[in-house]
Write a structure and sequence with these properties.
Blueprint lengths: L2 H25 L6 H31 L7 H31 L4 H7 L6 H67 L1 H20 L6 E2 H19 L3 E5 L9 E2 L3 H12 L8 E8 L2 E7 L13 H12 L5 E4 L3 E7 L12 H42 L7 H18 L2 H19 L1
Parallel strand pairs: 2-4
Antiparallel strand pairs: 1-3, 4-5, 5-7, 6-7
Length: about 450
């Protein structure tokens, strides 16, 4: 529904309610003729329309201004005070128009008969509507801000995780190719076997790419396969002991964290048959311990700074647990927290999901609005009929709000049940398809 038509219908509805309330408290629905009723009803709608449009323009002006987060109270005060002033000014000019132009009175007589009591009803109505309007507006704004904050957090977390994951593939492949290059010149047969095992290990790397946690048993199995690759190259220069059992099959760990730790151990230490690298991986008190003896190389190749930092950052994105690193010059030990979170996929299509959520929420809001209006219609119209019956049944004025409101309900139902939006969507798709075919 067009926003202008929607606003007009809302103002018409508010004007009708004000007309009914005003006559209940002041006039008692006493009209000499249908013409008198239509005149009063028309002036009432004119008041409602002018005051409503004036406040909408003022509210849009305030809404387009940039407000700081701590200026909500200031925004409310300015909005309410401004609305009251605008409403009083509009009431004054409307009353003057009605008295001077329509009824043909003089301006001096109009001023002489004016009193603050003539504005109390309009002032209370304005304050009531403004308070309700601001309450709804700030509630909706607060909900929108929460959604936006969640989107920002999700986007940042997903981007960080994707960046960290993308480091793993080239890092693993680069180190494995270095090993393979060495084996080709040293032992071609071993290089062939290494290539076969490498393909199986790399398949695991690709399979775990989109997971943030995997079962501990799977990661240990992978670590064992990876160590066999290293053993093929270094032979007696490396020994390892990896636990074969886990205390709880539900325990999870960040994928490929063991591979990074094993790479670091190989990268930073001298590995010879006389001074072998000893690697132990075992479980202890809720942690997986990865430790190795220290025999640092004299000259180290330039570090890519991926290993520990990558693991620590990935842990920080999914858990409050931190990795624990100890180095006593003899043993280098890393403790990885074992988690019980369910395996899940870090999703990058949250934007599309959020758009679908927003569309679904809008649809639900439209349905709620329609049913709310329908319930109000069912309650209010019989009440108006009763008032009409008790006051002036000879003039059945209740038909006007019943048909006017009913027409608004019909228009609202078209939008709520998707007739209008389906036509728009079909037309949009049709135009897009025609442009693609050009």
């Amino acid at each position: 529904m067009n926003s202008i038509i929607k606003n007009i219908l809302i103002l018409f509805f508010i004007g009708t309610i004000i007309f009914v309330i005003g006559n209940i408290f002041y006039g008692g629905f006493q009209f000499d003729s249908l013409n008198d009723f239509l005149i009063e009803f028309g002036f009432n709608q004119l008041y409602s329309f002018v005051i409503g449009i004036s406040n909408l323009v003022f509210f849009n002006y305030l809404n387009n201004r940039e407000w700081k987060d701590n200026e909500s109270v200031k925004r409310i005060i300015i909005g309410m005070v401004g609305s009251v002033i605008i409403s009083l000014i509009a009431l004054f000019f409307l009353k003057m128009f009605q008295s001077v132009v329509y009824f043909g009175g003089s301006y001096n007589d109009f001023i002489a008969n004016e009193s603050y009591r003539n504005y109390t009803f309009g002032l209370w109505i304005t304050l009531t509507i403004v308070i309700v309007f601001h309450a709804v507006y700030f509630f909706k704004k607060n909900q929108e801000n929460k959604v936006k904050e969640s989107q920002i957090v999700a986007k940042n977390q997903t981007a960080k995780f994707e960046s960290l994951k993308n480091q793993l593939d080239p890092h693993f492949l680069f180190n494995s190719l270095n090993v393979l290059t060495s084996l080709i010149s040293e032992n071609p047969n071993q290089a062939e076997k290494f290539t076969t095992k490498l393909s199986k290990v790399y398949r695991y790397v690709l399979e775990q790419k989109d997971k943030d946690l995997i079962p501990l048993a799977e990661e240990l199995k992978f670590a064992n396969s990876y160590m066999e690759l290293l053993k093929m190259r270094f032979e007696d220069g490396i020994n390892f002991n990896i636990t074969e059992t886990v205390s709880n099959p539900e325990l999870k760990i960040v994928p490929l964290s063991l591979q990074l730790l094993l790479e670091n151990a190989v990268k930073h230490n001298v590995i010879t048959s006389k001074s072998p690298l000893e690697i132990n991986i075992y479980e202890d008190k809720g942690y997986l311990i990865v430790e190795n003896n220290i025999n640092l190389k004299q000259s180290l190749e330039k570090s890519t700074k991926i290993g520990l930092k990558n693991i620590d950052q990935r842990y920080s994105l999914i858990s409050k647990e931190k990795i624990v690193v100890t180095d006593n010059n003899n043993i280098f030990r890393v403790k990885l927290a074992l988690l019980t979170q369910k395996i899940k996929i870090m999703r990058t299509d949250y934007i599309n999901d959020n758009n679908r959520y927003i569309r679904a929420k809008e649809r639900v809001d439209e349905l709620k609005g329609f049913y709310g209006s329908l319930i109000s219609y069912v309650i209010v119209i019989p009440f108006l009929i009763y008032i009409n019956y008790r006051t002036s049944w000879n003039f059945q004025w209740f038909w006007f709000p019943m048909f006017g409101w009913g027409l608004g309900l019909v228009i609202q139902s078209f939008k709520a049940f998707g007739y209008g939006s389906n036509w728009e969507e079909r037309k949009i798709r049709e135009i897009m398809e025609n442009e693609n075919n050009l």
